[in-house]
Each structure stands twice: as structure tokens, then as C-alpha cells.
Amino acid sequence: MTSSTGPVGLYQYDAVDREFVHERVEQFRGQVERRLAGDLTEDEFKPLRLMNGLYLQLHAYMLRIAVPYGVLSSTQMRRLAHIGRVHDKGYGHFTTRQNLQFNWIKLAETPDILGELADVNMHAIQTSGNCIRNVTTDQFCGAAADEVIDPRVYAEILRQWSTNHPEFSFLPRKFKIAISGSPADRAAVKVHDIGLLAKRNAEDEVGFEVWVGGGLGRSPFVAKKARDWVPEADGLAYLEAILRVYNQFGRRDNMYKARIKILVHELGIEKFLTHVDAEFARIRGPKFALDPELVAAIQARFAPPPLADLPGHCPEFEAAKASDPAFARWVATNTVAHKAPGYICATLSLKPIGGIPGDATSEQMEAVADLADRYSFGEIRVAHEQNLVLAHVRKDALHALWTELKAHDLATPNIGLVSDIIACPGLDYCALANARAIPIAQGISERFADLDRQLAIGDLSINISGCINACGHHHVANIGILGVDKKGVEFYQITVGGNAGIDAAIGDIVGPALPAEEVPAAIEALVNVYLHYRKDGERFIDTLGRIGIQPFKETLYAAAA
Amino acid sequence: MPLLRETGEAVADAWTILPDDRPVPAGGAVVVSLKRWREERETLAGRDAPLGVLLPSGALASDVAPDLQRLGLIALDFPKFRDGRGFTVARELRERFGYTGEIRATGHVIADQFPLLVRCGVSTVQVPDTAKLDQWQAALGTLTIAYQKAVAGEELPLSLRRFKVA
Amino acid sequence: MSTKAITANRLRDGSVVWYGKDGLWVDTVDRAAVYEAGAIDGALALAKQGLLDQIVVDVYAIDVKLSEGRPVPLRYREWLRANGPSVRTDLGKQASALAYAF
Q1: Which of B96, B115, B145 sits opposite A282 (nearest CB)?
Q2: What residues in C contact A429, CB-CB < 8 Å?
Q3: Domain holding A111: CATH number?
Q4: Residue C101 belongs to some domain of the structure
Q5: Out of the domains of life, which is the source (chain C) (predicted)?
Q6: Do B82 and A236 make contact, defined as CB atoms within 8 angstroms?
Q7: What CATH number does residue A265 fall under?
Q8: Full 3-state SS string of B93-119
Q9: Mutate which of C9, C10, C49, C83 to test chain A, going by most A C-beta atoms within 10 A?
Q10: Residues B56-92: tens digit of each pLDDT
């Protein structure tokens, strides 16, 4: 293994990488100056600022900062806290794409903010725009017990390949790639433009199962399988072939039909793949090959956590669970198994009851940074469910960590439960939204405030989007909520049966659109239908699968009548 | 309109882009539309003077692939700078079809795209009369590092070895 | 016919502004100039000069009603822009001296 001494879990920037991000800051500084001087029109400037993560939202500019594959160091987290305090209003919002957004940014200050980020090897490159977006993956990468391949290495290779790609920076529309290295797929790969499942064959070689054309938004699609196996060496050539077909044939006449999922749908997957295969056949080979030395070199830039050699059984941990039921309950919901004996992965909930999903104050960010230093080798992850993770915690220290988390309101024991709600910023912040999302999440969370009741209900995902762009991933939630505007009034359309995992599915509409104040009661009614029919520890999604949508529909229509 | 080569230097334009309703002169370097090239191929190919074709956005490199020996210039029209199809056409002309003549970007492109166009194989860019040429030239040197190989040059594998490009 | 006002975001900092009576952009909606339907197109054309001067972006007209002689946005989206996020009433225009009580 490598003897690198840098931050754990992150790709170690070298002088060249650092130079690049600093040059990119100066490039953007020049672009801002040209915009303010009138040398660039807003129309021309907009894609440039978007490719640096800067949106114009309802109240101000919003800056979306990349957290590459969801991993950041305590130093980086402290820098985010600092930027939040100095350039924003003391808080940030962690997103479903493992990024961090600040809501109150000034255009004129943005180059300096990006400079402060570059000093800690961070940036906002390609977090927006019609380009290849920053790659997302599993929040437990490199730690989870069920992992087959550590996806960070390939996510980093994809980051480099896609950064300022000369051919693919002005695509028909945005392009999102997700990669998972575990069969559980915690990266929702089947609802991405390209989803990669890294795996090993019988000869122990690495390759990728490639899925294409998934996505949410106005026309949701679960991805279609493009290839069962693309060898590691050909991975980039195959992606390059897909992107090239998309760049040439993707629709540019209608932005709502410009994603690759529409091209795949309109051509049909067979015809689409005929184009891709022809391109792939032309370009595969030494020129585009990803050679093993290079993969090894990238791998070596990831410092593994210096884990202690511990026994699997930890008496202190078992004793703490036995004597402290609140701790035991938190362990049950907020931890997953680590691949190393004596360690565990802990999720820090950013979903306190009645809180704003994904929001963290600068003080909380600093607290998490300190806790990461003391409990997890200074490494932090962002989950696409808008929570944070300390991935390498010693079991014998977990009770102490939990005790400290409680003091910072980061220990709500609700991961995967009904109040672990994903919500986009919605109309409270977003210029595209039709309705608010956050207050709906707060209302549902408060209605189910009783944590014992939440535990009794069990695994249940609720996702809320404030418009059809579906940043809140409502389509793939067990219960999805979509905000719509009906003659200036906010209404909410409810779906059930969605799933983001390996059995990805799009939910079905289950009732009439409801006004905001009726949504929490409607959700409760759906939960009660499930509890009524539940058998033998079934999850909500299992019961729904068994009994069908009808009982849920009848309940909502009866309530609305 | 000023014409910049891939080095950023302003150069004289030896070519005339000919609207479809204008007769083709006997001599001189002219650029005709793809449509006209297809309709008048015999006449145009027999002409004893340099000939270029203007590809509308949406045309593919393969549309002119059989004729590349005859064509001294291929102009790519960018109707809107956000329409990035021309980047692929340029790269395919070079990499797939081995075209060695001039590839020119015309229409609406912005200075920030200049280095990317060059990296895809474009050799000249036509810029608006109002363009500040120093900004276009500066754009070429803003990022000195690339994570991908350019079309021209290296025989190394597609790399994540970072390249000095400026 | 409904009464209109004109809004935009300031280019440099993104903050929400409205077109005022003297042709300057103002920070609170209660100081926005109001127009009857027949006058809005002309006013919008004048306001859009601010795009060319690199002062504002995204200039458009909104529906307002008059409350005690002062304009109040009709659509909820515009009400949020005039006030700030409903989930953080400590932030935005609603939190400062610029706030205008609705």
C-alpha cells in the first residue's frame, strides 16, 4: 500500500493539479471582469459562470461547490465553514449530488471565494452547465463491508477525463455520471445519464457494467443496460463513444428533450447502441486505453486510513449498547458495517425533526471537522441523501462520538426513516421552482416527530421536489412529493413505489394534487395503509409491491372527497 | 471580419464564403455550402482553384469524408456558441478521417471557446469585427494544463497525465 | 387590468431590485414604480437599458396590487423575492431595515 501521508480518502493534488485549479480561478476572474465591463453578454457569460457552479437564484447568486465523489477533509470542511461565515450567511446546504451550496453569494466576490477554495484543493468546476457534471458515488466507498471495488479511483479518473473536456463542454444538456462499486448501489446509478457498476469477473479483472439514459426530471426513465462488461482498459473509450454520439445526435431544439435519455428513448436502445458500438470500435485501442500503471498511480494518490489491528468483537461497544437504549437505537439506524474489524461507519443526520434537510451551519461544519479529526482520520463524506458520514470510527469510541454529536444536534437517529427526507431548496431559494419543498419536509417531519413511531414504521424514503426538474429525486422515493403551481397556488402531487437502489423504479401517482397544509396528513394516511396491511416485517415498498397501489389510492381519494 | 489562427495571430483571409445565390467565379479560393457542393459537385470539383465547404451545424464529418482530398478548407458554422456539435466534427475530421487542411470555426463562438476549438483540431476562427483581439489571444494562454490530449500531436495513450498546453 | 411593476437582479451581487420612479433601481418593492397595463411596455423598454449598462440582469414585469398606496407582489414567488425565504425569516430583506410589512 501507499505510504502517502496526506488526508485520508482524498485524491492527493500535486503541483500540476493545484496549478490547474488556480489557473481556473484566474480564468473565471477574467470572465467576471469582462462581464462587468460589458465585453460578455449575460447570454454568453451564463454558461461560463454555470460551469464554475454559479447560478442566479431568487435572492442572490448561489454557488455550488464540488465535493468530488462526496469526500472531503477536515481542513476543507473548515474552509467551507469559513466561506459560509465570511461570504454567506453562516450556513450551507448539502445536496443530493454530494455538493455544497451557498445561497447568498455576490458575483463580484466569487473569484476570491474560488481562490480560497483552490487553496485547499477545492473548486466548483462543472457543478452546473451543459457539460459532464462532477461524478458522484457511494458515500461509504472504501469503507463498506459489501464493497467489491473502491469506486473513488475511477471517479477520480472520470473527474480528470471530464475536466474542461475540449469536445464535451457544450453538450445539448447536462450530463451526470454515477459510479458504484458495491452490489447494493448506494449511488442511484440507474437514474443517471450514465451509471457504472464496477465489478470483477471470474479472472478477478476489473470492468464496468454500463447503464445509459436514466434520469428524472420531466420525463423520468430508468437507465437501460448498454453493456454487461466493459474492461477497465476500455472504460474511457466507451464513455467517449457514448458522449460523442450524444453530442452529435442529442436534440438541441427543445431543452426539455435534450437529455441523453430522450435520445435513447427516441432512437431506441438498439439503434443508439449501434451508433455507440461503431464509435467504440473506431476509437478503442492504445490511443484511448486506460493503462494499468495509470490506474495504479491514481490509486496510490489515495491515502488509506491507518486502521488499527482490532478484534471484530468490541466489548465496550456491546456494553454501551446494552446500557444505553438511545445509543443502541442510533446505532441501529445510523451506522453500517465497516470492512475492517473493530470499525464502523457512522451517519450524521442533517435532518433534525422540523429542520431544513441538508442545511448545516458554519459552527456545525467546524464541529464535524473537529470530530472527524478525532474519530475518523480527518475524513468526512457527504451522502446523496443530504447527510454526512464519518466512515472509519472505532467501535470502542462510537459512544463518545455519539455523545458529542448530540451536543451539535447531529445525532437524530432517523437514517432511512420517515423523517430522513430529501428535499430540494424549492421556491424558498430556487429560481426554477414552482412550489416550496422545505416547509413540506418540515411539516412531515414534525408530524412523525416521535422517533419510536418512526422506528416502528421502518425503512421508508420520502423525497420532495419543488418542480418537475426533480432535484429532490421525488420519482425514486417510496413516497414522492412534487410541488406544482396551480394558478399561483402551491399544490403537491404524491407518488408511491419509487426506488433509487439496484431495483430502481419510478413511482406512480396516487391521488389528487393537494394543498400544502393537507400533505402531512395524506402522508400519514399512506403510512397507515401500509401499517394496516404489513406482514412479517415488510418494508413499505414490499407491502406496496404485494398489495398494489389501489388501497393507497382509495385512501387518498376518500380523504380528498 | 478578423481571422485568427490557432496561435492567436490575426491573418489575412484568402477565402471567400459564397452565398448560394451567387455564381461561382472561375478563379479564387471559395467556400460553398454543403448543399451546393452536393448539387454541383461535378462542376465544382473540376474547377482549377481552391475549394472549401461550409458545414451547417448538424452535418457530420462523414458527410464530406469522401471529398477531403479535394477540399482545402472546411468551415464549421456555429449558429449559437452553445451548440457544441462542431467540436465533435472537427475532432472527427482530424482523428477519424485524417484531414490535414484548414478547419475554420465561423458564426457565433466566444473567446473562451478558442482554446477548446484548437484542441479539437480547428485551425482558424472567424471573430466579430467588434471583438477585442487581445482577449481572444489571452484566452489561449489562460489554462496551461489539460487533462486530455489534444487532437494534434502526441502518440501517448489518452491520458490522465496532465499536459502542458500553453 | 392589473397593475404592474418591474423587477430584476443586480448584476454585481444578485440582489433583488425593482425599477423606481426616477429610473433608478431600488432595494424594496414598496418603492417600485407602478404602471397600468398600457404603460408597462414602454417602461420595460426603458428599464432594459439597465441590461446594456451592466447594472441588472433578468428584467421582467410582475403583477402587483396596491396596499395603502404601496405595491405588493401578487404571486407568491415574487412575494418571496421581496421578503426572503419563508423558512428563514431571519434572512433576506425581511430581516433588515429594508423590510416592508405586508
Answers
A1: B96
A2: 85
A3: 3.90.480.20
A4: no
A5: Bacteria
A6: no
A7: 3.30.413.10
A8: HHHCCCCCCEEEEEECCCHHHHHHHHH
A9: C9
A10: 999 999 999 999 999 999 999 999 999 999 999 999 9
